[in-house]
Amino acid sequence: MGFLAAVAISSVSISCSSDNDDFGTEVAQKSVLTITLTGNNIATYKKVDLEILETNSGAIIKKTLENASAYSFELPFGSYKITANGTVITTENEEVQVGATGQKDINTAVVNLSLPLIIKQFNNDFIIEEVFFAGVKTNDGKNYNNSRYFKITNNTNDVLYADRLMIATSEFFTTVARSVTPNIVDQAFPISAVMIVPGSGKEHPVQPGSFIVVADNAINHAASNGFDLTKADFEFPSTNPTLGQVDNPGVPNMEIAYTQMTYNMIFLYTTSQQGYALARLPEGQTASTFLAENKYDYSYTNSAGGVTNKSIYKIPNSWIVDALNTSRDNDFLQILTAPSIDAGWTSASPGYNGKTVRRKVLGLMSNGKNLYKDTNNSTADFVRNSEPSLKNGIVR
Ligand SMILES: [Ca+2]
Ligand SMILES: [Ca+2]
């Protein structure tokens, strides 16, 4: 006799309402289902909620596992859908959110089900996975001022579009604390430059876990100990004749909306003292409406005792999708972002050491791509002085 028939016969004495943990199945055949949670690099199964749905009756059983990875349920025969949701601690001591689903027809006395947990701690937008700003030295010990890049990663489980992303460098430094008036850090990020990914909205799809590289110059820098950035998605434009940079015609150029440098250049300090923000230009805005609406005039008392006035631009905090501060242990004075955007700082120092700042990997997405840590605290989220991820070129 199957589960449905048993329910029909004994319907006078039992109920199968979905909030009733007792299936009321004295007359049905029973099974012991043992669910075992599995997953890579999990040290502790901190707290996982299991929900077992009998799909014909709609009956639901719930159980919360704490510091346990297996549990046995006594269940009537039936067709079950099992979901798990919770929190685990990885072997790297990171607390991450996980989930799993499984399906099982139960018609024998003993059934075992292994549920592989998948990390589901997604962001809701792009993240700055890495900024290579520190630079490299050439074989004869010279500072090489190219081969820098931003690596922007889709840390969500949806396709995102890179169109209209803004990459900005900070106006201020983490290593110089001036008392500026007005101080607007709670509302906006004061910038020294900003460049915008071209596109009308849906021209540059990025799959979950995939990334784009925005390189200073999309060429092979290997001869100078830099990286092969030929396959970058975008590059900084440069018209500075003394830099001798070659525009790669196969790689679209970023649109420079604003820079304080000559020749429309974007410059990343090698010395771990700037902040970087990733924002998105809202629909209906253009580079010129952005500039028209986001001037920032500020003043401070300079070292000679006079007042310095400066007129620059800012990006509203509400446009920012991710940001990080960089600094140096002996020189850190302040963060440049609202703490809700980034409460810490990371470092690749000294300059030209060939090292980078990279986000910690929490684990893998279901498609096998890395899932990165983002708690809006770059001290905790980034690994200082990492090996650049593009050391061996851009491998997708
Ligand atoms: Ca180009
Ligand atoms: Ca963030």
UniProtKB/TrEMBL annotation:
Pfam families, sorted: DUF4876 (PF16215)
InterPro entries (UniProt xref): DUF4876
Superkingdom of the organism of origin: Bacteria
Name this protein carries in UniProt: DUF4876 domain-containing protein
Organism listed in the record: Epilithonimonas mollis
Record lineage: Bacteria, Pseudomonadati, Bacteroidota, Flavobacteriia, Flavobacteriales
